[in-house]
Every structure is written in C-alpha cells, then in structure tokens.
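Consider the following assembly input.
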Amino acid sequence: MAREDYLGVGVIRNDAVEKVTGAARYAGDLKFPGMLFAKLLRSEYAHAHIVRIDTRKAQELPGVKAVVTGKDFPNRMGLYLKDRTPYAVDKVRYYGEPVAGVAAESLEIAEEALRLIEVEYEELPPVLDLREAIKPGACLVHPDLHTYEIGAAFFPIPNTNISNHFRIRKGDIEKGFAEADLIFEREYYVPHIQHSPIEPHAAIALYDRNDKLTIWASSQSPFAMRNILSHSLGFPMNKVRVIGPYVGGGFGGKAGLNVEATLVPLAMKCRNAPIKLVCTREEEFRDTFVRQGMLCRLKTGVKHDGRFTAQEFEMYWDAGAYTEYGVNVTRAAGYSSSGVYDIPNMKTDSYCVYTNKPVGGPLRGFGHSENHWAMEQHIDQIAHELGMDPVELRRINLQRDGSTNATGQVLRNPGIEQCLERTAELIGWQEVSGPGVIEPGVKKVRAKGIACMTKAPAMPNDAASSAIVKLNDDGTVYLSIGAQELGQGSFTVLAQILANELGVRYEDVRVQPIDTDFSAYEWQTVASRITYSCGRAVIAAAKDARRQVLGHGAKYFGVPVEDIDIAESKVFVKSDPKRSVHIGTLSLGVTLPDFSGYGGPVIGRGTFIPEGITAMNPETGQSEKPVANWTYGAQAVEIELDVETGKIRVLKVAAVYDAGRVINPVTAKTQVEGGVVQGISIGLLEEMKFSEQGKLLNPSYIDYKISTAADIPDELLVDFVEVPQEDGPYGARGIGEHVMVPTPPAIANALYHAAGIRVRTLPMTSEKVYWALKERASASLR
Amino acid sequence: MLLPFDYVRAGTREDAVNLAIEAGHTGSFLAGGTDLFVRMYDRQLRPKTLIDLKAIEGIEGIEHQNGEGLSIGAASPLNMLVRNKFIRSEYGLLAQAAHSVGSLQVRNRASIGGNICNASPAADTAPALLVYEAEIETWGPKSSRLIPISEFFTGPGKTVLEKGEFVYKIRLPKNDTQSYGVYLKLGRTDSVDLSIVSVACLAFASGEVRIALGAVAPTPIRAREAESVLLNSKDDEAIAQAASLAREMAVPISDIRAGEEYRLEMTEVMAGNAIRQALSGLAAIREVK
C-alpha cells in the first residue's frame, strides 16, 4: 500500500529554526583545544618553474609548527583524472596555486611566516588563450599528461593540452547537412564564473596517534573526499574519516576534494593537533573550483519546414590548471549536446583544454548552462531565419516518446512538451516573427523570450546511495545518510520520505550529521541526484524498519501481521483501531506478558544503485542507456530594456520543470526561484576577468557582481509537470541544477525580440548591450 | 588578516588633533570604518593607530534651524540622513544619494564624512553636496576651516585635508527658493554597487539649475558650463545641449566596471534624464503649492 501522508506537502524545513536563529554549526564555527591555524603561500605567476623554496626562516619563527611544500606530498590526486597535487611540485600552473603551507599557533603568526618563505621562480610563457592552447606545438601545461591515471570514460590526447576529447557520432553527418535547405552556424562564449556560496570553504584536519586522519569540512562529498584521500595517501579507507557539518551553499564548488588537501601534509607533520583552514573570499573566488570558460561553434542543418537534419557542435573548455573534475563537465556537455531536440545526424566534439587559469570544476548545471547558452539561442535565430515562431520551431523538433537524443538513446515520454506549453501559457506567449525594432524616441521596450533545457545526473554509472533508520524508544527516528544538506532542502525531503514510508510523524524524524565512520554511504551530493537516488535508499530502509515494527506489533497485540498498520507514530490493529500503541514502545523490541523479550531494536537498512546504465561507445558516444535519467524544463522571461543605457531588467519569469513527482512543493518552488535568480545573475553580470598575465582582477564582490534582492523579478511563476520517473522515489527526479540553465538564453532571446540584437558572449552587460544597440542603429541607417 | 593596531578614542576635537599629531603618519581617523577596514585587510593601508572620532560632541547628528540651513555631523551614518525627515523634504537629493551607497548594513555604519574623505571619484554623496554647495568644516592642528566642497577634492583619494585635520561638520546653506533634486546612478546591479556614472541635478524655482557628475573625472565635478545653458532656456534643445556639455566636461577612465566611451555616452544620457526629471519634479511641486 503506497502511503501519501507527506507527499506533496510543504512541511517546514527541519533545519529552519537552527539556521534562522544562528544556532546551526558550520565547519568554520568549530574550535578544538590546541587547534592550529593554516595559511597558504600562493603563486604570483600563472606559469613558472619553482627553482628554489627556502622555508628555513619561516620554520624558525616562534609559534610556527610546520611548513610544507610540494615535495612533502607529491602524490597526485583527483576524482576522474589524477593530475593534481595539494601544493605545486616543481612548477606552478595558475596565479594563486598553493606553493607552501604553514601551520601556526595563530593566524597572525601563520601570515607572518608566509612572508618569510622565499620562492625563486623562473617564468614560463603562460597558456591563457584557449585558441593558442589547442594549436600544435603549444606550450604544455601538463607535459606528463599521458602518464596520469584516468577513468575509463575519458580520452586525453597525449602531448597536447587536451585532457579529454569527448565525441558524439550519430547517424550520417554529411548526409544530414546535404539534406538541409539552410545551414546556420555561429560561435558562442561563456566566461569563467564563481559559485559564490555564502560560506567559504573551511576545513579542520587532525592526524592522530592512531595514524588516523580526520577532516571536518564544508563539503558536498564526505565519502568522495575519503575515497580520494585514501587512494592518494595510500592509506586504508578506515584510517580516513570525514565529518560534514552543515554546508552554507555549495553549487558544485564543494564537491570532490579541494582545499582540504592542503591540510593533509601539515596535519601529518603536526600529529595530534587539529589544523584549521578557512578560505578568504579572495581565495574562494580563485583558489577553489571555478566554472571553466567555454568557446563553441554550433552548426545546424534545417529543412524549410523547420525539421533539423544535422548538427555539428564543437566545444572548447578553458578548463584551467587541473582538470581532475572538469573532464567530466566536458563529457556531460557532450552527451547532452542535442539538448531537448531530436536530431538524426550529429557530430559533437567536446575538448577539455588545460590553461594556466584557476581550476575548472563542477558548478550547478555542469556544462549544461554553457551548451544551452549556445543551443537555445541558436534555435531562436534559425526560427527567425525561417520566418517561424521560436516556440513553433521547438515544437517541430522536440524530443517525444520514441525520439533519440545525442547518444542514440530511445526516450520514453520525455516531459519537455508539457513543460514548454505550460511555460508559454504562463508567460502569455504570443507568436513573434523577426527582430524587435525600436521606434525613435522610445526609451524602454519590453519583450519575451523562451528557452528549454535537459540534463541528466553526470555521475559514474555505479554511483550509489544508502540509508540507515534507527528507531528510538521515545518514538523519534534517526535517519543516517551520507547525503549533505547544502541549503537545497534534502534533509527535509528525505525526512518526509521516511515519515511517509514508516508511518511516523515528520517532526519525529532526525537526520543525523554526516560522519563517514558512522553514516550510511553516499557517493556525493551532486548531480541533482539526492532526492532521486538517496530517496530510493530511504524508502528501502524505511520499508525494512516498517516490516520489523509490524512484526513487533503483531506479537504485541497477538494478531496476524496483516492486521497491523502504522500511522502518525502509532502502531494499531486495523480491525480494531482502538488497540494502538506508540511506536516508541516497540522500538527496542516487545516485552511479552510472561516478561520474555521478542524482536529487538528496530534498525532498517536500504540501498540504491541505478541499474542498467552502460558505458558509451568511446568512438561514437552512443549507448542505449547512458545516464540514470533526464530532467526537462522550460523557462520564459519578460524583460524591460532601457534603450538609453543598455540595461536589462527581468520583470517576469515563468519556469516549469518535470520533477516526476513533487515531494515538497515549497522547497521545490524555492529551489526554482533560487536557480532563476542565479540564472539572471549569470546572464547579466557574472564574469571573472583576468589580466594578460593570468591574474584574476576581480576576486571580490566589489567588481564581481551577483544579483541582489533589488534585481529579482517582480513576478516569478513556478509550476511543475509530473511525468513519473520509473525508478525514482514515487516517480521523482532531480531539478536542483536544471533551474538555472535556461535563464540566460531566454533573456538573450527576449533581447532579440526587444531590439533585434544578439550578445553571444556572456554576460549581457549594459555596456555590451548598449554598443550592440548602437551598431544596430547605425546599420539600419546605412 | 588585519595587522595589529592601537585603537584610541578622541573625547574632544582638540584631543583628536593631538592624538593625530602624536600618531604621525601611522595614524588614521576612524568613523564608520566600512572603507578603512577593507583597505586594512588588503594591506593598502597599514595604520598603527586608529583615532575614533565618534565620541566627539557634535560630530554625529543632524541640526537645522530656520534660516540657517543644515548642519550634519561628519560621523553621522548615512542611514541617519536617509531617515531624516527634514533632509528628505528639504534636501531630498542628498537623501537619495546617501541611500544609493552600498547596502543597508553598510549605510548603518558608513558615515557621510568618510564618504567624502575617501575622495573616491564615485563617492555618491559628493555630487549631491556639490549641487547644494556644501561647506566642509574641519578641525586641524592650525585652526578650524570652512572649505567649499568644490575645493575639497584634489584627485582620486586626495583632498585638501592636511595632516591631523579631520572633517567635523558638513554645512549645507539654506535653499532660498523652492527646489527639486534628482540623483541618478548607473550601476551594474540595482543596489550594493559603485557608480559607473552618476549625475545630480538640482533645479530651483529661481530658474537656476545645478549639475554635478560622479565617476567620470578624477574627482566628482560640477558641470557649470552645462548649467549655464539652462539659465536662459529649459526647452528640449537646451537640455540636449546641457547634456552634451556635461559629456564634454567628463574625462572618465576605462576600468573593470566600464569603458571610457560608455561612460561618456552615459554621462550625456543621464545628465539629460536628470535635468528633465528635476525640472518636471520642480514643476509638479510648484503646481501643488
């Protein structure tokens, strides 16, 4: 019997009171007796040999407990590609790379010690231009790339700067273009951006007398961190423990292993002393993960009637100094390169390119914000070339039941058509044809634009989840999981799922903090996969616990187990509901009338691993089931363009996603709202700017702008489609990342409808828009 | 990480001057500290002694007497100006400019004195003070001075203040006739941002129009040539000419926030808009009365 007690209910978040009262503890709040403080000396060159490091003066400074450099820990680490060391060894590869680390009794002493470290560099030509980096004979960022350990799904090209070349070869590309009536080709660019979590990276590392390394970290990935540390340290897994307090925002930047690695060699030198590192905001900008830049060329063949016949897509990723995680971004953007469309003939090449820039890595959207920036503007331009409404052209090419995507996977009931139609309805879409024209004297002009998206969880095929449910004798239930609460609301939704399945009150569920020594395993809190994957594990664990409680109930009441039910934390006899007992009474087993015991404490266990995902063909990227699932969505915006200044204001947004099943309508809605605002911010404002020497010029909010409360649209309309996900919990699938993907292209399309201009390089700043308007005005005079 | 420093609180104006002389070049005055501490964190400034001015009598607070104009203590936080009813009604442009600085939290601490003493070309209150023809009352080792705001700024980050001299009060003369002022600020975001270009325009019932520009020259500037065009005529042509003259007076730089050319274009656009809005605002209040 499927219960529905807590499904589709907007319960209050279980972390709400703690967080709004300031009681919630984050990694940066933690203090331990005898704790030391770490600071990192960072490279002031983008690319240079380290000729000499002299740390003697720093080591002699009173209060300094340890100084380490790359030589102390030369092991290479990484999630998908082992190309990275905690500290630069022999050479630095970006401006900001850690060169040495200090642990001292105070931050002041640690900072002073940094100034006493002498480093002699020999500058190398920096590889900063993506186009130069891929040329034959280019200076190599990693000359030893061919010797690095790498996952089977990735294809580096030896003796180049390309650490992954992902390919799609579907159908017959030449035939597809030959059949086309019109071929449309354009270039697009997205710059580097930052995650901007409210809480910067923070970690404390302790290497104790039992040779055990414990790390408290603001991390999306306690278990993946344990895994990477164990593999690169050569330590047995049981000698590494990661504890994860609440995370104050991750957006991908706290996935995998990052700045925490720099503490490991320090901790090993300062046995039994906890060492704390909290990133400054400047370090957060430059020295954690960033979102890599991407330059692409998109070419589409289309018939007069609007049918796509072929698509060629080349993506070049400005992936930075290390691509241990970034290689998978480039892969994901490659296999999703059809977007939401059914394109019979495809050729996609996605190149992950090393440059001497900060380390590219996961950021909400994981390559999809980037490739959709191109695809979803491109289709609008084609529509206008054909004299067709952009929504209509989408309708013609949308994936439907039986369609194939870039990987050749045959799709079953993709929800995109419903999402698109509902979005168009919410925004009040009216047919548009051709560019907007600004009449003389008009100062403000309004227009609408639309964009679609799809994304799958980008994760290893065997990324697994698990859950443990423990019943306490006061009737409360402990849920132990390895999935992290990043602000997205997963602790709330997983507690709802547990309450729903077990029959207890939601308020009685306590989600336990994560500790890899005690918590149930989870791969990582990434890929919008927690509700989907961990949700299934929680259902299984709850069912297991429920089976035990029902058995206890049957024994307690002396009735057949079929006659027992649980609801609202009460165990009762179905045929005589007056006979009921609080679930806590049965939590540790049953005491029978003769005072003998039965059953024992209730502990449920559950696991989930998505099944049937197979490797893509390395040559063609084709696979029957390349990923766990696809989530679809659409967004439309109405903008007001200030013609005099070029400033875009987003007035209204409509966003519709196929969540499969909405478990908590409040957290789902707020997730969409947050994503939309991030999408607006990326669309209009965000860009990391580098000097010609590769130095980041805007590592603070003074000149790296993100949307403020004042920039939020007046109206934000959110709705959901519910086409059930076959293997999702109650049919649910993830939406966390998706919701920021289509906003920038929707704005770009609205801009065209407003003023007949396109800015193909993000962000669409007032200045860029202004000059585009000027150019258009002068072109129309000619 | 902050370097160590001494904190001293001046009880009187004389005290502040003496402490500053004692501290010499390693001393720095402290009011709200919202800019100072950011620069200390970044090691752009390394003061060894911070002399807190906020305990000095009269340095915080807003006074106005009929016929006397307005006197603002230099350490008054910007939100005090934003919330002051008299300023909102009689010197509305100053309230607008103060409100456009930073965030609510910043405005709770940041002082008007600090905003001008930092002498940023983009200081939001400066164009407002320029069109109100404010005078800056200072205290220093030699004497007390009254400096017209138009002579106060000498370059980016530079003022006429001498060693040990601090701003005590900012005095705005009484408006003799009805006026209406507008502060327009073009930033990247709608709040918490620095100006790319800002324009203050104050129109008087007497026919006088004053215009000041921010972020487009080494200091905030009055655009007097643009003003003079509007003395005789306020029709569209005159406004367009004034806006064009404002642009000619601008000598902006290209930086990470915007290019020089864009700033020039925006100076003209925003000057035109500010003039139009100020004139129509003035017309509206005159109709009511």
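Residues 76 and 85 of chain A are 5 Å apart (CA to CA). Ask yourself how this observation constrains the way the partners meet.
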